Amino acid sequence: MAPWHSEAEMTSSSSNMSLSQLSEVTASDDSPSPGQDSSSDLRISVAPSTDGSKTSVTAPNKQTQAASFTPIAAQHKERADVAAPLPANTEKLPGRHPAARRTESFSPKKRVRTFVIWGVIMAVVIVPAVVGSVYYTQVLLPQWRAADAAKIKPAVPPLPPMAPLTLVMYDEFNSFNQDSWRYAYGNGLERGWSFKGFGNDELQCFTADPSNVDVIPDPEKPGNQLLRLQGVYYPTPITCVPDQAPYNSTTTQWTSGRITTRGKRLFLAPANTTSTTNQCTSLIVEARMKVPLVKGTRVGLALLPETQNQTANAPRCEWEDECGAYGIWPASGEIDIAGHSDTKTVVGQAIQFREFGTHAWRAQDTDLTDTINEWHTYKLEWNCNYLRWFVDGVKTHGVIKYSFNEWPFDQPFYLSITYAIGGRLVDSNVEHKDSAVLVDYVKLYSADMTPPTTELVVTATTATVPLSTGNSTAQANSTTPTL
User: Fold this and answer.
1) How much is the pLDDT for 316?
2) Which residues pair with 387 in a beta bridge?
3) How many CB atoms lie within 10 A of CB 471?
4) Residue (of 342, 316, 341) closest to 329 by Cα position
5) Which residues of the chain carry a pLDDT beneath 70?
6) What is the pLDDT of residue 255?
7) 39 close to 64: Cβ distance less than 8 angstroms
8) Are 418 and 229 in contact (CB under 8 A)?
9) Residue range 198-255, pLDDT digits in tens
10) Three state DSSP letters for the chain
């Protein structure tokens, strides 16, 4: 620091300064430098002379300096106190001076408002979340799992060995041959309530009672026997099949008859024997029948697929007698050899199958206006490559395998004869009277043999039934007759 000058020197050197400049000069260090004694702070007092000619500048000694600037030291101390850090337990409140900070308790209004806010949060968010999660896990989730489990179909039970193919069968119905035929029972309830009426809302209950299925003398030909399937009307409802469940749980006003060869006599058109030409021998199915002309009735002579193991991509079968090789009806096909309903004068012949995933058919009606209720011979020629239908020896309908995307008629089928009453396929005004379909004979034989003339049954030597060419389009070089 520069040495102090004498008062005279300071007086003479400052004589040239103006009074206003000197009055503004005050030199001081608010805070001493490190190592500097605070008592050595420089304080300069400037005062004008009494006569206005001179200005005197006085540098006080240390004792005078300390005595003159005590308020300044006190101010420094106050500033130090303000800048001093707060104790650790002092609450910091924003916007308040530390000295004014204090812990405030909630007022009653604040308590009520807080309680209301949390109550709303509980009611709107927390309670629904808890209740919803409990309801989901304890109610909804078990219901959904049960519904999903119900949709899972039980595995198809193992099938019994398939009966050997029947190569030749000629039945003149001199008696009811239970080695070849079986009775149908009930009204479809064995397949569930949704199938009551066999999916067509039919009214009859099938029974084995002689009033419904019987062999009777031919009134037109002495010594000849006929199969009779008869529909019987009851003014007062009766139990469907009293001694068989589930049929004994329902009543009906109609009973009728149906017989099939399912599980006993199976038939299949022979597979091709010459790979170069893809030709095969036809199977002939023939029946002589007489149909009634009664409103609300339906006659059916048909081939249906036998229960058997299915291909990997087959639609699942729900009921035993529809589990053909290609799955649930109509995927495994149906061949209608002859069908008649109501008082119509035509006979229908058709196939039913699956095409592009839906039910499809190819049908042809044959007009028999003058002779519909007389005896007629209905015939099917079943070949591995085609099907042809005949009435009284005249060809009436035909289809060729390679014109279809799917051809399920290469698997074992059984024969069915049905007389149904009521339902969606016939006139709803069912006549309340007994009526019947009559069958003289049924023949099945190979086209390369002489038709049998007496009752005869010839079966294959094995139950193994290979499919011919699978459910696919036939080869282009198939040889077929004119259809």
Assistant:
1) 62
2) 382, 399
3) 23
4) 316
5) 1-106, 150-160, 272-278, 309-322, 461-483
6) 96
7) no
8) yes
9) 888 999 999 999 999 999 999 999 999 999 999 999 999 999 988 888 888 889 999 9
10) CCCCCCHHHHHHHCCCCCHHHHHCCCCCCCCCCCCCCHHHCCCCEEEECCCCCCEEEECCCHHHHHHHCHHHHHHHHHHHHHHCCCCCCCCCCCCCCHHHCCCCCCCHHHHHHHHHHHHHHHHHHHHHHHHHHHHHHHHHHHHHHHHHHHHCCCCCCCCCCCCCEEEEEEECCCCCCCCCCEECCECCHHHCHHHCCCCCCCCCEECCCCCCEEEEECCCCCCCEEEEEEEEEEEEEEECCCCCCCHHHCEEEEEECEEECCCCCEECCCCCCECCCCECCCEEEEEEEECCCCCCEEEEEEEEECCCCCCCCCCCCCCHHHCECCECCCCCCEEEEEEEECCCCEEEEEEEEEECCEEEEEEEEEECCCCCCCCEEEEEEECCCEEEEEECCEEEEEEEHHHCCCCCCCCCEEEEEEEEECCCCCCCCCCCCCEEEEEEEEEEEECCCCCCCCCEEEECCCCCCCCCCCCCCCCCCCCCCCC
How far apart are alpha carbons 16 and 193 in whole angstroms? 130
**Which residues fall within 8 angstroms of residue 388, CB to CB, at 6 or more apart?**
380, 381, 395, 397, 398, 481, 483
Residue 440: per-residue pLDDT: 97
Choose among 206, 229, 200: nearest CA to 425.
200
Q: What is the pLDDT of residue 418?
A: 97
CB 267 within 8 A of CB 384: no
pLDDT at 111: 80
Q: How many residues does the chain have?
A: 483
CA–CA gap between residue 126 and residue 117 (Å, rounded): 13
Beta-carbon contacts of 179 under 8 Å, excluding residues fewer than 6 positions away, are 264, 457
CA distance 39 to 35: 12
What are the CA-CA distances from residue 282 to residues 167, 352, 418, 441 (Å)?
A: 11, 20, 25, 20
The pLDDT assigned to 124 comes to 82
Q: Which residue has the tokens 């519904």?
A: 147
Q: What token pair was written down for 2?
A: 């520069």
Nearest-5° angle of CA 195, CA 188, CA 173?
Answer: 145
pLDDT one-digit tens code per residue, 50-90: 555 445 455 555 454 444 445 555 555 555 455 455 555 54
